[in-house]
């Protein structure tokens, strides 16, 4: 297991569970090629300081950085940016401990790398991961509260013209919080958020506000639309420039459950409209925003973006609310749009249905049968999604 941040039982074990939290740090740096090898358990938030002396950075990150490196790549963790892949696309080598204790190194042009870089923990224990990094860079963040109709009207242009674009739609409102990040060279002037503003925005507004909207949703569901409208207007409206990892990631202190599906990028607008109509037509009161992101097509066999430019739709529910009806109805819509579920987030698919959505699924199963025929590296979740 990594940091235990998956919403599914993917890191749960019926027998022995190996905690790699003490296997952290830098193993090797190839300065000529900008490649770094890190111990598998290294938490993402530790990596920037390890890379700083070499002037390197990870090209893209997700919303948070509490995960372990191996856990994040193994589930297909991704951020946003139509021209950028998920974290597993940064992997150019892994060392796997096999069931007999032997080491298997998969690196470079090895045809197994696209399988081993995103393997759900099913091919062995990852001991180290080699990442292709990029020169350190800054990001200029522009965050706005905008009418949803305006965002949807020129969505393809926004997605294409920005390095990293995403938006959050607040259900029961016509408001969206947009975030557009632009990559800048490290010599550009830094304009970080003043510490007090950063604390106020993140602790009080982002997390405190979500806690309040969630509490309102539980206590007085009818108040959710008004609370969401207020939240949507309060969030957004700031610009700053800082180190890439500081801008990519945030703190999340409100507990929630999440389901996220990938759909072909060109189908995302239609999928989003169907999702919006569903929420409008049902009597649910959804306090958490719907998150919308993008990623470039990649070649990782079990990547949600395998072979297709991809859009992501993520739905959330406060941990004290039952997500079952909402998630099931959203899942039906996203499956109809060719969806593939995030491996670390809630979904109901099994190996039979997943095989139809991943062209290389059978090859992955064959590789698993060869490397781990006795299922040393399995659990209930993997039995369900890959087959026993
Ligand atoms: C608040 C929050 C925000 C999130 N934001 C995002 C986001 O922006 N984008 C996104 O895509 N996802 C996101 N996620 C999901 C998260 O990134 C994934 O679930 C990720 O796998 C969690 O990493 P972990 O280290 O906690 O792994 P775990 O959940 O502990 O494990 C995940 C899988 O990795 C395997 N694994 C871990 N270490 C090893 C190893 N050394 N060798 C072999 N297998 C291993 C485990 O066996 C398991 O199969 C978020 C989750 C939370 C809770």
From TrEMBL:
InterPro entries: ALO_C, FAD-bd_PCMH, FAD-bd_PCMH-like_sf, FAD-bd_PCMH_sub2, FAD-linked_Oxase-like_C, FAD_lactone_oxidase-like, Oxid_FAD_bind_N, Vanillyl_alc_oxidase_C-sub2. One of its GO terms (molecular function) is D-arabinono-1,4-lactone oxidase activity. SUPFAM superfamilies: FAD-binding/transporter-associated domain-like, FAD-linked oxidases, C-terminal domain. One of its GO terms (cellular component) is membrane. The keyword Flavoprotein applies. The keyword Oxidoreductase applies. Keywords: FAD, Flavoprotein, Oxidoreductase. Residues 1-136 form the FAD-binding PCMH-type domain. This is L-gulono-1,4-lactone dehydrogenase. It comes from Arthrobacter saudimassiliensis.
């Amino acid at each position: 297991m990594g940091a235990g941040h998956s919403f599914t039982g993917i890191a749960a074990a019926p027998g022995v569970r190996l905690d790699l939290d003490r296997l952290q740090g830098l193993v090797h740096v190839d300065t000529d090629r900008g490649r770094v090898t890190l111990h598998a358990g290294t938490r993402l938030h530790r990596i920037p300081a390890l890379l700083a002396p070499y002037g390197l950075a990870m090209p893209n990150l997700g919303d948070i950085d509490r995960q372990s490196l191996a856990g994040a790549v193994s589930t297909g963790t991704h951020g946003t940016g139509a021209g950028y892949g998920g974290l597993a696309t940064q992997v150019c080598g892994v060392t796997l401990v096999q069931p007999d204790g032997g080491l298997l190194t998969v690196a470079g042009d090895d045809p197994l790398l696209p399988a081993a870089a995103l393997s759900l923990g099913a091919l062995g224990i990852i001991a180290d991961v080699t990442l292709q990094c990029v020169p350190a860079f800054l990001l200029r963040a522009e965050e706005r509260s905008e009418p949803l109709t305006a965002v949807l009207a020129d969505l393809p242009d926004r997605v294409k013209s920005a390095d990293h674009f995403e938006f959050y739609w607040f259900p029961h409102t016509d408001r969206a919080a947009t975030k557009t990040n632009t990559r800048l060279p490290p010599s550009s002037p830094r304009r970080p958020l003043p510490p007090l503003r950063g604390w106020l925005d993140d602790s009080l507004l982002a997390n405190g506000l979500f806690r309040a909207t969630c509490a309102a949703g539980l206590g007085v569901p009818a108040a959710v639309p008004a609370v969401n409208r207020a939240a949507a207007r309060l969030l957004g409206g700031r610009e700053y420039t800082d180190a890439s990892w500081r801008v990519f990631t945030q703190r999340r202190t409100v507990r929630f459950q999440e389901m996220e599906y990938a759909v072909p990028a060109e189908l995302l607008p239609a999928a989003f409209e169907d999702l919006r109509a569903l929420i409008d037509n049902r009597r649910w009161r959804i306090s958490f925003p719907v998150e919308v992101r993008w990623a470039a097509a990649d070649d990782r066999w079990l990547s949600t973006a395998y072979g297709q430019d991809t859009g992501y739709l993520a739905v959330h529910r406060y941990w004290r609310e039952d997500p079952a009806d909402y998630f099931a109805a959203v899942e039906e819509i996203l499956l109809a749009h060719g969806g593939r579920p995030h491996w670390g987030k809630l979904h109901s698919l099994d190996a039979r249905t997943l095989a139809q959505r991943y062209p290389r699924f059978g090859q992955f199963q064959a590789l698993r049968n060869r490397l781990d025929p006795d299922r040393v590296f399995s659990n209930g979740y993997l039995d369900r999604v890959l087959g026993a």
